[in-house]
Structure formats: structure tokens, C-alpha cells
Amino acid sequence: MKKKVTINYDEELNPSIKEARMRRNKDVNFTSFILEPQYLNIGLNKKYLLKTYGCQGNLADSENIAGILELMGFSPCNEEIDADLIIFNTCAIRENAEERVFGEIGRIEKFRKQNPNLLIGLCGCMAQEEHTIEKIKKTYPYINIVFGTHNIYSLPELVYSSLIEQKNKIDVLSIEGDIYENMPVKRESKYKAWVNIMYGCDEFCTYCIVPYTRGKERSRRPEAIIEEVKELAKAGYKEVTLLGQNVNAYGKDFKDLNYTFGNLLMDLSKIDIPRIRYTTSHPRDLDDLTIDAMALGKNIMPHLHLPVQSGSNEILKKMNRKYTREEYLDKIKKLKEKIPGISITTDIIVAFPTETEEDFNETLSLVKEVEFEGAYTFIYSPRIGTPAATYPNPLTEDEKKERLLKLNDLINSYFLKGRKRFEGKIVEVLVDGESKNNKDMLTGYTEHNMLVNFASNKVKEGDIIKCKITKAYSWHMLGEVVE
Ligand code: SAH
Ligand code: SF4
Ligand code: F3S
């Protein structure tokens, strides 16, 4: 039998949820990323594999991680067997997200045994959790380096100490630090880009782990964002998606500037880039200026992801969402009036602790009223350290699943209705490339963020083309390219 590879960490800085919960009145500093010369070239002739889970925030972070690694000389690979360094950029949002990562880490052990020089790293939101770190030490003691969401910039030092000095470290900061501008970035796409506009979240929805794993809300300066979008436009990018956990809180932390998300959208809409999207919006903070900017800005796409979570006022209150069903519906009405044809998508949690049949029916009735054209629906998952994890939840697993199925059945009918409205119409599609399911078809997204499959040998990735929609389904549409 091969010996189990077990790592004892040479240095440990472990996360603390208690520390992470606190919000300090400290000014945000902006720092530039610099790669120290001793870290250059240590990845030469070595390959890395990055496995990313979770939201767009993590996808964007992974592009920075890849940028840093390539600056250090590493080159990318697709197969675990070829890798000298495997990094898991993880998500902690629900228990099943965590289980997936642990499953993958368990599976990776065999590569560690085959290649004793393989380095394994873990970062992202799970690294910010105390129980994850405990579990790593106990059950997966072959991970070489652990770092958190607040210190991606530490990666070169951690790789260096593990690879060159054979010192393995856990290095997780519980409290957010400076905003790093000019991080190296290796963008996945040549025509669609993520642009972080802010970090962290101060909403503290009672079910959610994000305010603990991502720290307090910190906005990037408008000039830096505008400059980045201008550069992307110049480089031929067709679409940018502005990122933040609660983009509508953008700018609220500026002490010297009265500048909000609406102002930013207005300014960005003047840049010559075809498509601007953003995610995610918090319904309470979505204001008139933002709606006006969406209505006026020709390049602000007519799609809004506005997570409602529940249709019951009682549950919204227990979730600490700080808006009522009526206020949410008012905003939807305003959006539909000011931006005719806007597509609205959402997130919904079922079986939140104490959710009664009546509460759940309120959610169903809200779905009928809004007619969402897309949604992510979840069964509530308790997160250690969040208030809701201590609330009583008497529902059985079967009852929870039943609610999810019932909700999905209803909501899917509106996905179809939302796409049917485009049958026979001509829409603009940003071409993504080959369809995953059918190599003879191309695929892309409309302005309303709906997937279209079509056949053509004349168009290429990154083109914005006109398509006539021939058939609509719940999850996608078929189209024909119009000359
Ligand atoms: N900041 C965004 C996204 C947060 S995470 C927002 O506020 O909308 C994405 C979604 O995951 C949430 O909208 C919520 O529906 C879901 N979610 C978050 N925590 C959850 C939990 N503990 N159990 C189940 N779903 C959860
Ligand atoms: Fe989580 Fe709420 Fe913040 Fe979204 S707004 S990240 S759901 S705490
Ligand atoms: Fe997951 Fe963290 Fe994003 S918990 S959803 S990766 S902010």
C-alpha cells in the first residue's frame, strides 16, 4: 500500500467567522499589485489547472489567479494528470456546493500519490470558513496551500514557499484589506469581460455566508472602472458585465464623492462598447437613477437579475431582505414601464426556516405576477455562523423537495412564455461559438440574455449578428441568421 501523503503546515493563519462578522470604519486603500522578482519564472516548464466553482465573482478572481500564475511562468493545462499545480477556487453558498468540492478534492488524492511533486491549493469562499479548514486538516491533509478571498495577491509567495522552500502554509485573512488595482488578468474570453466594480457585502441576509467570506462593501473608484471599460472597448471587447454582490450599493462607501451605481451606469453608457450588463442587484437598493440609466443607455442590456428570494413578507423579514413583496412588485412595475420588454430573472429560496404552506403560496403568486423569464431556485441550506442556521426548520427533506418541484413547474412555464414572445422576431445575438450539445450549431445570447442556437458558416465568435427566431423552448431558442 502506498503511504498516505500528509502535510503538516509550517505556518497557519486560520479564518475566524467572528472576526469576519465585524465591520470596521477603516478607509479603503488602493494598492498596485507587483510581482517580486524572486517569484518570476518559478513556474517555467510547469503546468497549472484551475478549478472554479460558484458565482461570477469567483470566475473573475480565477482570471486574476491565472494572470498571476502565468506571470510566474506557469502555463495552463486541462487534465489533472498533466498538472504540477491544481488550485480549487471554491464556493460556500450551499452545502451541496461544498460537498462537490470535497468530492473533487478526495478524487485528486490519487494524482498526489502518482506525482509527489504535485502542489494542491485551495482558495475562495470555503477557505474563509473555520469548519472547512478543520476538515482539510482532518480529512484532506494533502493540500499544500490555502489562501482566502482577501489575499489572492499572496499566491506567488505561497507557491514559492511550498515549491522552493518546501514550506506549506494556510494563509487566510478574516478581514478585508486594500483593493488591489492592476492585478494581472488572463481573461477567458476575447470579447466578453467581467469587471468588478465593488467587493464584499453588508446586507447580512440571515441565510447567507457571503458577508463573512467576502468582507465589507468596498467600491472601486469610478475613474478606474471607466478606464478599464474603455480599454476593453479599445481591445475589441463586445460585452462587459459589471460585478458586485450588491451593485446597487456601489459608491455608498465613498466619503469624498456623491456617486452611485446609477451615475456609473450613465457614465459607462457613453463608452463605445456594444453591451453592458451587471449583476447582482438588491431590490431594496435598486433606485430610479439606475432604472433611468437602463432606459436611456442604448448599450445597457434590457435584462435584470433581481433576486426576490421569497414572496412572503413574513419570510422576507426573517431573511432580513429589508423590502416587502409590495415594494418589490412596485419596482418590477416601474422597470417594465420604463424599459419596455425588459426580461426579469430572479433567485428564490424555498423551505427557509418556518416557511409555511401559505408563505410558499405567496411565493407562487408572486411568480405568477412577475412572470420571471429565468430563475435559480434553491432549497434553503443552513450555513454555519449565519443567524438562520439556528432557526427551527421542521419540514422534512421530501417536503422541501416537493416545494422546489412545484415552484420549478410553475416558473418554467414563464420561461417558455418569455421566449415565445420572440418567435418570428429578429434579434441581435453575440456569437459565443459552437453549441455544447451540437457541433453543427452555433450559439450566442440575445440582448435579453436568452440563448439562441443557429446554423451558419459565415459568422464567428464575437460577432454580433441578426437572427430571426424560428422556435422558442423554455431554456433556449432556435434562430436563422438574417443577412
Ligand atoms: N449577492 C447576490 C447573490 C448571492 S448568492 C444576491 O444577493 O442576490 C446567489 C443566491 O444563492 C442567492 O440569491 C440566494 O437565492 C441563494 N442562496 C444564498 N444563500 C443560500 C442558502 N444558505 N441556502 C440556499 N440558497 C442560498
Ligand atoms: Fe448574500 Fe444577501 Fe449579500 Fe446577496 S445581498 S450576497 S444574498 S447577504
Ligand atoms: Fe459562492 Fe462566494 Fe460567490 S460563496 S456564490 S463564490 S461569493
Structural overview:
With 483 residues, the protein is an alpha/beta fold. It contains 13 helices and 22 strands. It has helices spanning 17-21, 56-71, 95-114, 130-139, 155-163, 210-213, 222-234, 261-268, 288-296, 313-318, 325-338, 357-370, 397-420; strands at residues 11-13, 30-32, 47-52, 75-76, 85-90, 119-124, 145-147, 169-171, 179-181, 192-196, 198-199, 218-219, 239-243, 275-279, 303-305, 343-350, 374-379, 426-434, 442-446, 451-455, 464-472, 477-481. The strands form 6 sheets. It has a 7-stranded parallel β-sheet with strand order 1-8-7-6-5-3-4, sandwiched between helices. Strands 18-19-20-22-21 form a 5-stranded mixed barrel. Strands 10-13-14 form a 3-stranded parallel β-sheet, sandwiched between helices. Strand 18 and strand 19 (442-446) form a beta hairpin. Helix 8 runs parallel beside helix 9 and helix 12 (357-370) runs parallel beside helix 13 (397-420). The longest helix is centred in the last third of the chain and has 24 residues, at 397-420. The N and C termini lie far apart (65 Å). The model has no long low-confidence stretch (mean pLDDT 95). Bound molecules: S-adenosyl-L-homocysteine (SAH), iron/sulfur cluster (SF4) and FE3-S4 cluster.
